[in-house]
Specification:
Blueprint: H1 3-22, E1 41-43, E2 52-53, E3 58-59, H2 63-68, E4 72-73, E5 77-83, E6 88-91, H3 94-98, E7 107-110, E8 124-130, E9 135-140, H4 147-150, E10 154-160, H5 167-170, H6 217-226
Parallel strand pairs: 1-5, 4-10
Antiparallel strand pairs: 2-3, 5-8, 6-7, 6-9, 9-10
GO molecular function: electron transfer activity
Protein name: Phytocyanin domain-containing protein
InterPro entries: Cupredoxin (IPR008972), Phytocyanin-like (IPR039391), Phytocyanin_dom (IPR003245)
Amino acid sequence: MSRSTAATAAVVVAVAVVAAMAMPAAGQGAPSGSPAPPYKNHTVAGADGWFFNATSNTTSGNYSGWAAGETFYLGDYLIFKTDDSSSVVQTLNATAYSLCDAEGPETLIYSPGHGDAASASPRAATIAVPLTVEGANYFFSEAGDGAQCEEGMRFEIKVAHGRGLPPDLAHPPPPPKPRVLAPPPDGTSMSPGVAGAGAGAAGDLTEGKSGGSRAGVGLLGVAVGVGLAVLVAA
């Protein structure tokens, strides 16, 4: 073998060795993926917010377009920058969503007010909704008897597992115990019948039209634990 042929063979072998070192060992497989991303707050439609113009019958943002560009995981929150002329309905029921029907099963209504679309001076508010159910989740506004939803104030998302639910959402605290008034002191003129008159008052929750009996188990457990909505004056 000539010197040139031997040198060429040596270079080929060296290249093969380097390539083999760069490849994973047989049976080792690809490196493990990066850990799931941290929990995130998603502001719905960004700066456009969750608003509806009753005069022009238009929404402030393209909600389906915004949702298509986001990735959602269990434990994330949707932050709705809105006002009390709109509402936020969360449902797991595709039919209720397609019909803009807040009366459907597995439905919760988060509302900063009464959803009065004709309000002359709506009050700004922020609604925080936790994502606690993996898979398809649907959101819309049922204000104006569903008119806002029909005009595009709705979107659907797919929630991936990610890190799973954090402890405060996976195991929400129990609902508050009913308030029971102590009996009046002996010798007073108060009727004994008032004892316990306030029972249940502290535990009352308003869930809009949907009612707790129709809410999905995952949605209802969190709604009881964290309240139906976190409202913060803007």
